[in-house]
Structures are given as C-alpha cells and as structure tokens.
UniProtKB/TrEMBL annotation:
UniProt xrefs under PANTHER family: MEMBRANE-ASSOCIATED SALT-INDUCIBLE PROTEIN-LIKE (PTHR47939), PENTACOTRIPEPTIDE-REPEAT REGION OF PRORP DOMAIN-CONTAINING PROTEIN (PTHR47939:SF5)
Superkingdom: Eukaryota
Name of the protein in question: Pentacotripeptide-repeat region of PRORP domain-containing protein
Start-end of each PPR repeat: 15-49, 50-84, 85-119, 120-154, 155-189, 190-224, 225-259, 260-294, 295-329, 377-411
NCBIfam families xref list: PPR
Length: 485
C-alpha cells in the first residue's frame, strides 16, 4: 500500500501488472487485509482485475480455511469473464490440501476435468500427498492410474510421495515394489525417492537394506544429504546400536554434510537410552555452539531421560530452559514431567537439588504444594501451569488446564491463581472472566491470594501483575456476601 501511495505521489500511476505483483507479495506474506485492500483499489481506479489478481487471494483464503470467501472470489472472477485456468485450479487445490480438506480438493479436481481442464503433474502430486497423509493409500493409487491413463507423465517426486505414503502406512512391501517400478520405468528416484525408501527400511529396523539403498544412491552419483544421514543415525539409535549411529555421524562430518537439529536430537536420544546423561548434555551444548536451537523433541527426550533416572531437579531445570528459550512444550513433555514427579518419591527431588544453583519455578512450586499437603499429580500439573504462565505461554497453560479438568480434577486455587496471573501479564486483566470462571469458596480464595503473592515475587524487576488485586477483591466480595447473606 505504501508502494502504491509513493507511486501516485510521484505521478506514476500503477497498472494492473504492478497491482498483481503487490497482491501476490501480500498474499505470500499472509497479509490478507492488505491484499483485499489492493484488490479494491484496482476496482476503484477503473482497472480490470484478472485471474492473476484473484488467484493469490483465493489460494490464501483456502489456506486460512476461509472457504466461503475463497468461493465468493472465484464466482466474482468468473462473472468478470475470467475463467479459472490450470494455475487458478492448482492454487485452489493446493490451498485446500494444505488446510487438510482433501475431499473438497478432490471435488475441485473433478469440476476442473468437467471443464476440460486437465490437472498437471504438480496438482496430482499435491492431491496424492494429501491422500497419503490421510492414510487413503488406495485412493492415491487410483489417482496415479488416472494420471497415467490421461498421459500425464509421473515424475520421481510423485513416486516418492507414494512411497513415503506407504511407509507411513507401515506397508513396506508396497513401497519397495513402487521404488523398483520407478527404476524399471527408467526414472532416477533421486535423493528424495531414495530417502523415502531409506526412511522405510530404518523404520522397520532393516539397517543393512538402508545402507544398501545409500550405496545405490551413490552409484547413481547422488550425494547422501542431511536427511539421509539423520534418518540412518536415528535408525541405529532405535535399534540400540549407538556405535553405528556415531560411526554414521563421523562419516557425515567427513563428507562435509552439516548436521541439523534432527541429527543432534537423534544422537542425544541415543545417549539418553543408555543413561549417559553427561554425553547427552555435551551434545546438547555442541549443537548450540553450531548455531542450532534445540526443538521440542530435543528437550522432551532429555527431560524424559532425567525423569527416568529420578534426577528430577535436572528435569525441572531443562524444562525451565526450554520455556526461557521460547520452545513450546507438547503433550509428550507434560507426560514425562507428570509421570516423573508423580511416580518418584519426594527424596528423588531433594537428592538432585544439590546440582541446581537457581531453583526452577516448577521445582519451587512443586515442593511448596507437596509441603502444603497436595497430591503429587495435582502438584505436577499445577507446577507446569505456573511455569507456562510465568513464561508467557498462557494459551498452552489454558489448554493443559482443560485436559487436567477432563481427567477429573476440579478447579483448584493454585491453577486459578496461576492462570489469572498469566492473563494479567498479557494485559487482559479486564477480560479475565472470558478465559476462566471462578468457582472457588472463601477458603480457596485465601489460598489463591497466598500463592498469587509468591507468583508476583517471581516477576522480573519493573513488571507488575493485577492478579493479586483481583483476587483480593474477589475474596472481599465473597466475605461481604457471606456476612450479608
């Protein structure tokens, strides 16, 4: 929009080509409002929008799940005399598949063919990929047959998509047949096709076959890439062959193939599986020295390993580090922590504390809750919720609280105080009732006030939360009602 303004100010009137470029750029950046405004400007300035004006926006709407708006634009485009072409249909189908609406995408493909507009290899590939992800392999195979019947040349990428689909569906035999068929048809499966097959062999623990596939790859003058090596390293780790994993890692480095997060995470998993937490931590540090940020899988593996070793202080420290580094935990992370802190004796926490200089928030509140007579599971859940709220992950905390409630836990004063604290830190203190109800009695509100004060003390200097004031007001209102009632 700023570009258009500057052009007009300099008496350089933008034409439809300029607008189309700007609309496409806005859509690529996900700026749907800006793209819509540009399209409106096109009409207001008396220019005629064409299919290149509409298609990027239609694609974006489908990607965002705004199917009605996408359909309205398609109708608008058709009314203006611009019939959808291969590019438009491709954008629509790609957007639908990306949004998980594969059935709708298949319907669009049928309508496309009714208009005698034949899908190309790219459209078939997108559809097959979507069907494979939905585990609809028979439908994907039928699509391949249809494609070949219409003389649309299937390339190695299409076969690789199907091979990967069969492997995801645990059908290694069908994947192997398809891989060999690719070669018989005179096609080079390429790195992508070979990697899909290597992934399958590793998934089933067939490491010799995986290495044989790597050799075939090299014979065809393809270099194994980071995905190849990472898959094999992970395969060895899953087979409890850490030596094989380290050997492959050494070869990877010798061949100047740069390891990625997946590579290091697989190695960390290998060390954790044999209980070598020292080498796991060394590898964790090494990956960061090389500029790689650990992801949710990396952290969860380490946290889970320390929980199994009953080193709960270390598990809590890595959870704190994870949140500090803005890595959002998932259900697997929560499962490790809840199981670890529920199934181990309180001494497992205190025995490991000596290693921790600054006590993590999780550990501080877990110990306090146990001391106050709470059960281990409730204390673990609440300590996670507190940690999430203190690190600005309120949405995740609310989701976990919902799961906690679905398991039969009732709203308690500590989770309420923590969530209110987090909501206030997000600047939504006036809207807190939109997020959480308050069904606490006077005694429970007193506990909330006490814990809220402790949460306030955890805030960085200069930050403030209105949660203690809100809780105090709720408590006073409750007391007043009790006296007058």
């Amino acid at each position: 929009l700023e570009t258009v303004r500057l052009m007009i100010e300099n008496r350089c009137e933008p034409d439809i080509v300029t607008y189309n470029i700007l609309i496409s750029g806005a859509c690529r950046d996900g700026k749907v409002n800006e793209a819509c405004e540009l399209l409106e400007q096109v009409k207001k300035r008396g220019l005629e929008p064409n299919k290149y004006s509409y298609t990027p926006l239609i694609h974006l709407y489908y990607k965002l799940g705004e199917y009605v708006k996408a359909s309205d634009l398609l109708v608008q485009m058709t009314k203006r005399g611009h019939k959808p072409d291969l590019h438009t249909f491709g954008a629509i189908i790609h957007g639908l598949v990306a949004a998980g609406e594969v059935v709708v995408a298949m319907t669009v493909k049928e309508k496309m063919m009714e208009r005698e507009e034949m899908p190309d290899a790219a459209i078939y590939n997108v559809l097959m990929s979507g069907l494979c992800k939905k585990r609809r392999l028979p439908a994907a195979k039928i699509l391949l047959e249809e494609m070949l019947d219409h003389n649309v040349q299937a390339d190695a990428y299409i076969y690789a998509t199907l091979i990967d689909g069969f492997i995801r569906n645990d059908d290694l035999d069908e994947a192997k047949k398809l891989f060999e068929l690719t070669i018989q048809k005179g096609m080079d499966p390429g790195v992508v096709g070979c990697n899909a097959m290597i992934k399958g062999y590793c998934k089933f623990g067939l490491m010799k076959d995986a290495l044989s596939c790597v050799n075939r790859m090299i014979e065809r003058h393809h270099h194994p890439d980071v995905f190849t090596y990472s898959t094999i390293i992970d395969g060895y780790v899953k087979q409890h062959d850490l030596d094989g994993a380290l050997r492959t890692f050494g070869e990877m480095v010798r061949r100047k193939c740069k390891p990625n997060v997946v590579t290091y995470t697989a190695l960390i998993d290998g060390f954790c599986r044999i209980g070598d937490s020292d080498r796991a931590q060394e590898t964790f540090k090494e990956m960061q020295v090389h500029g790689l940020l650990p992801n949710v899988v990396t952290y969860t593996i380490i946290i889970g390993s320390f929980c199994k070793q009953r080193r709960l202080g270390k598990a809590a420290s890595f959870f704190e580090l994870m949140l500090t580094n803005k890595c959002i935990p998932n259900d697997a992370t929560f499962h490790c922590l809840i199981n670890g802190f529920t199934n181990n004796a309180p001494t497992a926490v205190s025995d490991d504390e000596s290693e921790e200089i600054n006590k993590p928030i999780f550990l501080e509140f877990f110990e306090r809750m146990i001391s106050d007579g709470w059960g281990h599971m409730a204390a673990a859940y609440n300590s996670i919720i507190i940690s999430l709220c203190c690190h600005g992950m309120v949405k995740v905390a609310l989701q976990l609280h919902d799961k906690m409630m679905s398991k039969g836990f009732l709203q308690d004063p500590i989770s309420f105080a923590a969530l209110l604290h987090g909501i206030c830190l997000e600047g939504k203190s006036k809207e807190w009732t939109n997020f959480i109800p308050c069904i606490l009695n006077e005694k429970e509100l007193q506990i909330s006030v006490k814990y809220s004060e402790s949460l306030r003390q955890c805030l960085p200097q200069g930050m403030a939360s209105e949660a203690p004031l809100i809780l105090q007001t709720l408590l006073e209102d409750h007391s007043l009602k009790a006296k007058t009632g």
